[in-house]
Write a structure and sequence with these properties.
- There is one protein chain.
- By secondary structure, the protein is an all-alpha fold.
- It has 20 helices and no strands.
- Helix 3 runs antiparallel to helix 5 and helix 7 packs antiparallel against helix 8.
């Protein structure tokens, strides 16, 4: 008990816990509003209108990732390590503004080239403005992460999500078109960027300072060329999910687009916690990385890895057990088929949280080129599996399984490099995959022997008992694995 109480006191002093607690608490509220917005429009609009909204939204989200050129992590690392913070901030923000304007044009070109629907065209014109606004908002969010001031971001995003949910709720009183809804979203986003500039950002940021600051084309070109790996790292993760919606819209039906949108929304909600924790973990990894002494980094990585792994397993079992009941209840009978595809999608959550952690670790160690290569390899595998699979089987199952196998390969490649660099060991890697498989198979066995609900509580009761009994022994064994100084030559 003394050790437990001491651990709790240490956690209370932890920057990871404090920042993550506020992030999880506020994002829980934020995503409650965003989910309410999503559910209302899914129920209130016809499936075809909702699907076209998702297509235009997917295009915009896809290009937002590219328009930032994935430089958020580079910016965080630079702000943490530089003395002249003002110059870095103004240069980065002005660059993001230029890229936002450029990719607005790209958004329009893609929408008109890929689709004949006038509704998609109109929505793309409107959604494109969000690319410009989101680039500036994401830059402010990155600065707040670097300064451990995420609470500013969380407060303003709660206001943003509340206004969106309130707008959707008006549909119950006064129905309006999906185009009008999108215009309202743009207005709300404009309010949000003003709140960020006035209340939710560092003193280093001002609109006048951004507009007055001059960035030479040569400087922008040098920045992109020097950090082009971040472009790929920062964009590929979302490229999987957003490109899937585009592929579905071209190769399957609008109903499939809507069903995939529902499944992906639930997946997004499940990833809130690991992404929020990552905003605190990444700067900590940067500070703890010392090339001549990896002990501190190794111990920190080991502890956080267990947290991410446990969460992935919890999310998978929770969705598998409760989606049959909750999805039709929340989204309506039209989306009963989404249950099966949501369960398939959540296979990926078994490896995705720890893959996020390891990707952040590689960037912190300045190994982003390897992370970039692994992203490209996994994306190529995803595209090959998707197009070959859809050629033979016209089903959403192909998309979900392709994404899972691609991220599994991505995780394995990360493991390979981290073992080689002496951050982890082969034994630790094998323990992760072995325990994952054992827990999933054990859970599925319990499902067959009991039912979905009892299986969920039973597996976590067994895991809890196992942690109490075996955790001290496992900790000693893992510390033994990580204390080995010799690196395995591969």
């Amino acid at each position: 008990m003394k050790k437990i109480m001491s651990s709790i006191r240490n956690l209370n002093k932890s920057a990871l816990l404090k920042n993550s607690f506020w992030g999880i608490a506020s994002s829980g509220l934020q995503n409650l509003f965003l989910s309410g917005f999503f559910v209302i429009i899914a129920r209130q609009y016809p499936t075809a209108d909702f699907a076209q909204y998702l297509i235009a939204n997917a295009l915009y989200q896809l290009l937002v990732v590219f328009s930032s050129l994935g430089l958020g992590q580079w910016f965080i690392r630079e702000v943490v390590n530089t003395q002249d913070k003002a110059a870095v901030v103004n240069s980065f923000f002005k660059t993001q503004l230029y890229f936002g304007l450029s990719f607005y044009v790209v958004n329009l070109a893609l929408a008109f080239a890929l689709y004949d629907s006038s509704v998609v065209h109109t929505l793309a014109i409107l959604f494109g403005f969000n690319i410009i606004l989101d680039n500036l908002i994401n830059a402010i969010k990155s600065l707040n992460i670097a300064e451990f001031q995420q609470v500013k971001t969380f407060k303003i995003l709660i206001i943003d999500s509340f206004l969106l949910c309130l707008t959707a709720a008006v549909l119950y009183i006064y129905p309006f078109s999906i185009v009008t809804l999108t215009i309202a979203q743009i207005i709300i986003r404009t309010i949000t960027i003003n709140l960020f500039l006035k209340l939710g950002s560092s003193e280093l940021v001002s609109l006048s300072g951004i507009l007055k600051y001059k960035v030479r084309f040569g400087a922008v070109k040098s920045l992109v060329l020097a950090n082009w790996t971040f472009v790929i790292i920062g964009s590929i993760s979302l490229l999987f999910w957003r490109s899937a919606q585009i592929i579905i819209s071209k190769m399957l039906t609008l109903t499939d687009v809507a069903i995939y949108g529902v499944a992906y929304k639930i997946f997004q909600i499940a990833l809130i916690i690991p992404f929020i924790i990552s905003t605190t973990v990444f700067p900590s990894l940067v500070k703890k990385y010392k090339p001549d002494n990896l002990d501190d980094l190794r111990n920190y990585y080991q502890q956080v890895f267990l947290l991410y792994f446990s969460y992935g397993l919890l999310a998978f079992t929770a969705v598998y057990s409760f989606s049959d009941f909750l999805i039709p209840l929340i989204f309506g009978a039209n989306y009963t088929n989404a249950v099966y595809y949501t369960k398939l999608m959540f296979l990926t959550v078994l490896v995705f949280p720890t893959a996020i952690l390891q990707a952040n670790l590689l960037v912190a160690m300045k190994l982003e080129k390897f992370d970039m290569i692994y992203n490209v390899v996994s994306l190529l595998l995803y595209l090959i599996l998707t197009f070959v699979g859809l050629y033979f089987v016209k089903d959403l199952m192909v998309i979900n399984l392709s994404i899972f196998f691609s991220f599994f390969l991505f995780h394995v490649l990360q493991d390979f490099l981290l073992v080689r660099k002496g951050v982890t060991t082969i034994q630790h890697v094998l323990m992760f995959y072995g325990i994952s498989v054992a827990c999933v198979l054990g859970y599925l066995l319990l499902v067959n022997l009991t039912n979905l609900y009892l299986a969920f509580f039973a597996i976590w009761l067994l895991i809890g008992i196992g942690v109490i009994i075996f955790l001290p022994k496992v900790n000693k064994m893992v510390k033994g694995l990580f204390s080995r100084k010799a690196k395995l030559e591969i």
